[in-house]
Records
---
Amino acid sequence: MHALSLVCTLNASPTSSSSLLLSDQVCAELDKLGVTSETIRVADHDVRPGIGTDMGEGDAWPLLREKVLRSDILVIATPIWLGHPSSVCQRVLERLNAESSQTDEQGRPLLYGKVAAVAVVGNEDGAHKVSADVFQALNDVGLSLAPGAVTYWVGEAQQGTDYQDLDTTPEAVADTTHTLAVNTVHLAKLLREHPYPAG
């Protein structure tokens, strides 16, 4: 099985990123379960605005889309900005929206059978709201979500500590990340063996 993690930090490489750190921890848990993974920092690529699969010359989404379609598991990692997913995350969700009209030979959306998970970081409240927004969008385009499909960390509001500034990973975050990985892989295996029926 293969996982793709799209990290939606606003910062391009090589700037450090709390979203990238939590994504890496999710991928490490998936690796323990025999899942290979690839991580892409979306801000490093020219993903054009729109809801098409290809927005023309220079659009980096078609290459990223191929990676999404080849994966069994899609992880979306985003910071919280102004109580919402990042603008980069929103753009990824908008581009994924094009998949609603793309179907396989049995008429099912191409993302049916793939499983998604979410990782959220921030130093303000809003992890549940952000995960709810992203969950709904992912489900709308055909991805499935296991129980406990989000892991998150939020620091004290209006303070400057980031997740990457912590000396150690809080036990609650580590446990939640482990549960996310176990449940997500379990569901992905089930859907591989028992695909959704054609409409």
---
Amino acid sequence: MENPYKRKKDPEASKQLILNTAAEIGATADWHQVTFQAIADKTGLSKGGIIHHFRNKEELLEELVRQSLVELTDWIVEEKKSLGNDIAPIAFLRFVIKKSTDLSYRRTMKVILQAALVNEQYKKMWHEWFTEHIAGGSIENMDINSQIIMLVADGFWFADNLNLYNISESNKEQIVNKLLQLN
């Protein structure tokens, strides 16, 4: 007879729960406050269960950044399709502005930002992703208008993730419309 109290195992769901909880803790505090104990307390999983999926915090952060970049790639591809063009810096800018009100996106991007600021490995991952998906292989070879758009998008991205300014949605759209005139 099967034990009715035995927990059903779903390793992928547990792994995703761990990643989501780590992002949530890291975004509301800072990455140094993300501990296996804090994740266990918030999820109800055991520390041993967390260690089963991630040997250490660095492995957890690496997976979170990797997974976030995959998700970001999917979003950018969709944004380029919706624009009807292949101008990645504009797609990135529109994506950053559209997603600025999405708490899940902001939480994940804040963790990536923190990771990139304190660890060269994550800064390199971000640079490689950006070069491939936004700059088309080389930031130096982008035309000046695309570089301007890229820098404005970065400014929005940093400002949103650091909660620096409170720019209205209508002002953001006006900025995008002005930048679209560059192309």
